[in-house]
Amino acid sequence: MRLAAVDLGASSGRVMAGTVGPGVLSVAEVHRFPNGGVRVAHAGGSTLHWDILGLYRELLTGVQAANQAGALDGVGIDSWAVDYGLLDASGALLGNPVNYRDARTAGVAERVLETVPARELFDVTGLQQLPFNTLYQLLAERDLSAAETMLLIPDLLNYWLTGVRGAERTNASTTQLYDVRSREWAVGLAERVGIPPRLLPPLRDPGTVVGTLLPDLAAELALPELPVVAVGSHDTASAVVGVPAEPGTNFAYISSGTWSLVGLELDEPELGDAALAANFTNEGGVDGTIRFLRNVTGLWVLSESLRTWEAQGTPVSLPAVLAQAASVRPLAAVVDIDAPVFLPPGDMPSRIRQACAETGQRVPETPGELVRCVLDSLALAYRRTVRQASELTGRPVDVVHVVGGGVRNELLCQLTADACGVPVLAGPVEAAALGNVLVQARALGADLPDLAAMRALIRATHELRRYEPSGREADWARAAARIDPKVVA
């Protein structure tokens, strides 16, 4: 079975051609394209949009390329969360979707919390407070009177492919308009805050066949009328499907890239006061699971440091600087990698040195010292989040699975094992695309009855690397205390 996995990120998108069969699972990139916000001026200022038509064009180009390499059996789309397009009663798009980084939601969350307290909002939706959640974006719209339906980004693209409207549950669960207990739209909440319930389309499970390519579209592109499958359309949901955990293991996962998503897979949401205070989130996963996780700043700080050095005329090779970092004294200096100062783009090396100086630590001078500080600090953030997730749920963690681009950073994988005090299993890099094609394959008849079967196929076809912890627990506990003296090892 050959399948096209469309994987859209905030900075780039790609189409992967996947092959699935008995004992067979592989993906290969056939088309990659840039993505990003487009700022448009208007009388009231400016708005940051997505070029949704450009993304649609590139999607079609990629699917055509995948089909030319071998006849396709299906297509599935995953993307980032929370953003959407609004359709009128005829099904026409009312405007380019707004980018979640746009400032239009400033102050909206505070107004909502005056009507619905944070405790009540969390009890219904299970989501962490983020100012760009879909609920706040809809309330920031100038006028909803012409809008008939809201479609999240993958659902909008599926609609243009098939003519069928709907909302896939894993992405719907990120909107703050979804009841995490009943797994249906929180219609009462929507009405209470002033969002018309008519905007909320019918929900569908991941693994549902949405429809087939519209005949005119298929003819125009010289494609068969392919089935389009609603996969775990939030990219993290697809990535967690791609975590090759053994059945019965107490595992945590880290989907590691520019951002890192760190958490546990649960059967039911964790909605206690401690989870609310710790700013964890409960998002829907494939097969009714819950992704109990928190966002951690990922390899963003490292990539911005490399970009800064290049802009300053002293470019640094990533392999070379990682080799230097491996020989630097461990835990010489650490910072709170999740601190707000490290979120915006800019001169990360200067910010890191300043943070070290302010906490009375040895200031890293060479690129190798600075990168070691970044990686040690990131491993500490993983340690903190994995332990918090374990404490909040009462579930021990025996192994940490790392998937995504961070798998390639062998030093970070080893430091993660050292910091967390449990083995790390690294791989696969292409977890999101693999999760996408596996859910498609099952929907189209492959013998993959559950997550265990999907993950077994990944283990059988992809090499994983195991990293054992060094046993230096006291060193990591002391380093954690340097960032937060209240930390108890």
TrEMBL record:
Carbohydrate kinase FGGY N-terminal domain span: 71-242
Domain Carbohydrate kinase FGGY C-terminal: 252-443
UniProt keyword list: ATP-binding, Disulfide bond, Kinase, Nucleotide-binding, Rhamnose metabolism, Transferase
Record has Kinase as a keyword: yes
InterPro entries: ATPase_NBD (IPR043129), FGGY_C (IPR018485), FGGY_N (IPR018484), Rhamnulokinase (IPR013449)
Keyword Transferase: yes
Family to which the UniProt record says this protein belongs: Belongs to the FGGY kinase family.
Name of the protein this chain belongs to: Rhamnulokinase
Species for this entry: Amycolatopsis deserti
